[in-house]
Amino acid sequence: MTGLPAGTMREALIDTSAITENVRHLRALTESEIIAVVKADGYGHGAVRSAVAALAGGATRLGVADIDEALALRRAGIDAPILAWLHAPGASLVEAAAARIELGISSFAQLQAAAAAAAAERAVAVHLKVETGLGRNGIAPADAPMVFAEAARLERIGRLRVVGIFSHLSNTSDTDDRAALARFTEALALAATHGLAPQVRHLAASHAAIALPEARFGCVRLGISIYGLSPFADRTAADLGLRPAMTLRAAVAAVRRVPAGQGVSYGYTHRTESDTTLALVPLGYADGVPRAASGGAAVRIGGRVFPVAGRIAMDQFVVDVGDLAVEVGDEAALFGDPTLGLPPVEAWADAAGTVNYEIVTRIGPRVPRHEVGR
Q1: Is 301 a domain residue?
Q2: Is 129 annotated in the active site?
Q3: What is the pTM of this model?
Q4: Comparing C-alpha atoms, which of 260, 365, 253 is closest to residue 322?
Q5: Which of 9, 114, 206, 252 has the smallest number of CB atoms closer than 10 Å to its CB?
Q6: For the residues of 11-57, what is the DSSP string, one character each?
Q7: pLDDT by residue (tens digit) across 297-348?
Q8: Is residue 240 part of a domain?
Q9: Nearest 5°: phi and psi at 44?
């Protein structure tokens, strides 16, 4: 890995070839159609570049949370099928329908709104989401017969096309996920009795797509795994044959030699134990680096890994590098591909008491993304 370009303070390197290779690997592993989830700006990697890379790896559909995310992909020239599943109450679905966005439907009211958005010459493509135990959105079991019957009627008269039926697992335990799988299978059977024959059925996200083959149904929604991160607490990305796509790094902004007993950053939660060198890294919680990781996370500088010293501030934090010869402009890498000697993103997640999903998605807009590839 080369140093930061001159004048660059901080950056996230996005290896789009890793996304492509991860999708290709997961497609072969699951033997399923891949819906690549690029919501939340592609989990912080950039929605458009992630979508293009995932499609190059064999994904056939894209998934986002809301319609605005889907429309942004369309404006960027992406023509692949896009599914959006979370809608504002009372929102018009006309613009989405006109842009050929496939709509996730979680209620009878949303089904009616989708039908109302149909044009004379084009039916609206929908995926019916059923509640199978997660307790979030989705068609309630008691409402399913009514919604399925109406969806079938609207399909017969050309207002809708029921492209898919889907749900989501909790990943709580094998027992819980298999119970949800049974409920999903029952919902599919009920839909069939109403004459619905969806092209795709998708229940498994990254966790179940890998760990619960029965939940694949020939189509899986993959989010965290396509970015090269593991959905499991006890299996690394390398264990799964995945390569992390994001490297977060900055240029050391200042270097200071200090005596023993020097307080570091707000509140002096860290004091130096001996004469040492402090390196200032220009990234902070305004950039998405979690303040909760203060004193627990680590950074690679000069080929060695050093702990964060003291509290992470809004724009910067300090690393105690001991007697290492560090200069202004040297690279400080927060996380990346551990096989290249970089700290794993999970180390930051553990230090902050959260998950790898949150660390990458929270990296803010002040951090420029620079695309690289192999």
Answers
A1: yes
A2: no
A3: 0.95
A4: 260
A5: 9
A6: EEEEEHHHHHHHHHHHHHHHTSEEEEE-HHHHHTT-HHHHHHHHHHT
A7: 999 999 999 999 999 999 999 999 999 999 999 999 999 999 999 999 999 9
A8: no
A9: 85, -5
